[in-house]
Specification:
mainly alpha; rod-shaped; 2 domains
C-alpha cells in the first residue's frame, strides 16, 4: 500500500468503516511508515476531539494512547477473524477425512457377493443330459468290468 492510499483510509479507519482486508493493509502500512502514522495521530486527535465536543463528553487526556489502543483492538480483531477462519477450515478438513474413513470402512466391511460363474446349470435339459450321460457311461463301464 502506498502513502496516498493509506492517507485516504484514515477517516474510514477512525469511523470503523474499513473492511477487514483494508484494515490489515492499513495497519501494516501505518506501523511501518512514520509519516502516515503521524498523519493518523493528527487526524485521530482532531476528529475524536470534535466528536467528543459534539456529544458533550469530556475530552480525552491522551489521544495517542487512545489511538494505540484502537490499533491494538483492530489487530486483535484481525487475529480473531483469521483464527476463526483457519479453525473452521481445519474442522472442515477433519470432518471430510473422518467421513472418508467411515465410508471406506463401510465399503470394506460390506460382504461382496461375487458370482463364481456357472457351477450348476439352470437349464433342466442340460442338467438331465449331463447326469444321463454320466449314468450311461458309468453303467457301460460296470458292464464291461463285470464281463
Amino acid at each position: 500500500m502506498d502513502c496516498r492510499t493509506a492517507q485516504s483510509m484514515i477517516t474510514p479507519f477512525i469511523d470503523n468503516k474499513l473492511k477487514l482486508e483494508e484494515l490489515e493493509e492499513f495497519i501494516d502500512h501505518v506501523s511501518s511508515c512514520h509519516e502516515c502514522h503521524e498523519e493518523l495521530e493528527v487526524y485521530y486527535a482532531l476528529l475524536t476531539a470534535m466528536k467528543q465536543l459534539n456529544e458533550d463528553r469530556n475530552l480525552s487526556d491522551d489521544f495517542s494512547l487512545d489511538l494505540k489502543n484502537k490499533i491494538e483492538r483492530a489487530q486483535e480483531k484481525i487475529l480473531h477473524v483469521k483464527y476463526v477462519y483457519y479453525r473452521k477450515k481445519v474442522i472442515l478438513i477433519l470432518a471430510m477425512i473422518f467421513m472418508a474413513i467411515f465410508i471406506g470402512l463401510g465399503y470394506a466391511s460390506r460382504s461382496i457377493n461375487v458370482d463364481p460363474g456357472v457351477s450348476k446349470s439352470k437349464f433342466k435339459i442340460r442338467n438331465e443330459f449331463k447326469h444321463g450321460n454320466n449314468d450311461w457311461i458309468d453303467y457301460q463301464l460296470e458292464l464291461y468290468l463285470n464281463d
